[in-house]
Every structure is written in C-alpha cells, then in structure tokens.
C-alpha cells in the first residue's frame, strides 16, 4: 500500500467481504472501472480471500468427548482440592479453639499491687531511669 489511501483499501476490503452499503458499493465499482491501481488491489484481495478459504481447518487434538471428560476431570480435581483446603482450615480452627479453651480455665496472674496500707509512689524529681542530658536540653528548647 505504498501511496494507496488506507480508507480506500479498507472500503475495498469491505467490498470484497460483502460488508458495504449500496452507496459504498457504487463508489467502489466506480473506482474499479476508472482506476487501475484499485483494480490491482482488488485482484490482490480476491486472491488472498480465495487462499484463506482453501486453508484446511486444523484437526482437533482431542475428540469432543475426550475434551469434555478432560474438562470435567480437571473441575473434579479442583473441587477435591477446595474440599481438602476447607476441611484443613476447619481442623486448624478446631485446634486453635481447643487450645483457647484449655488456657481459658487458668486464672490470669497480674502483677502484685501495693500491700494494704502501702501507697504507690511515682518519682517525679528523681526518675527511675537516668535521662541523658542531650534529651533534657532538647526538651527544654521545645518548650
């Protein structure tokens, strides 16, 4: 299609395939009567179409019944795998629930609070852990 317009080529191809309106058919017939380049492409498209129609369809690898049974066996295999995963998940959930029940009977142990008469003291001026001076300086700058 060196300098042949793409729109003409598409319309010519549609003409060969019988996919044009009446006005488009008249237009293409006018081109065929008056333009040798259009006739050249028209002959080329006809030859391509004839060759394409002569091509033999490939033989199927499997017969229809074999193909159908192969599809169903694959579906059955997927269904089996899904069942196994579901059952495995259920068993895992049962084991976790059983362990939760076993540990639920134990009384949780909390840290011992102050004895009667004792009070909890919080050191404000004397921190329990030493704060590095660099952090103290940053804190004073930010305030």
What is the secondary structure topology, with strand pairs?
Layout: H1 6-17, H2 22-34, H3 36-54, H4 64-104, H5 133-142
Helix pairs in contact: 1-3, 2-3
Structural notes for this entry:
The chain is mostly helical and 143 residues long. It has helices spanning 6-17, 22-34, 36-54, 64-104, 133-142. Helix content is 66%, strand content 0%. α1 crosses α3 and α2 crosses α3.
Mean pLDDT: 81
Dominant shape: elongated
Run of helices and strands: HHHHH
Approximate helicity band: 55-70%
Low-pLDDT stretches: none
Strands, count? 0
Main beta sheet, described?
none
Determine the structural class based on helices, strands and strand pairing: mainly alpha
List keywords for this structure.
143 residues, single chain, 0% strand, mainly alpha
Give a short synopsis of this structure.
The chain has 143 residues and is mainly alpha-helical. It has helices spanning 6-17, 22-34, 36-54, 64-104, 133-142.
């Amino acid at each position: 299609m060196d300098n042949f317009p793409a729109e003409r080529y598409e319309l010519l191809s549609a003409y060969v395939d019988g996919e044009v309106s009446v006005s488009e058919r008249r237009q293409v017939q006018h081109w065929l009567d008056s333009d040798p380049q259009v006739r050249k492409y028209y002959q080329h498209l006809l030859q391509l179409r004839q060759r394409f129609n002569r091509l033999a369809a490939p033989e199927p690898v499997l017969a229809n019944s074999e193909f159908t049974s192969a599809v169903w066996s694959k579906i059955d295999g997927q269904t089996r795998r899904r069942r196994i995963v579901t059952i495995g998940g259920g068993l895992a959930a049962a084991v976790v629930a059983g362990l939760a029940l076993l540990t639920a009977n134990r009384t949780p142990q909390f840290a011992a609070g102050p004895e009667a008469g004792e009070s909890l003291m919080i050191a404000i001026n004397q921190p329990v852990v030493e704060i590095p001076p660099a952090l103290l300086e940053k804190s004073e700058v930010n305030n």
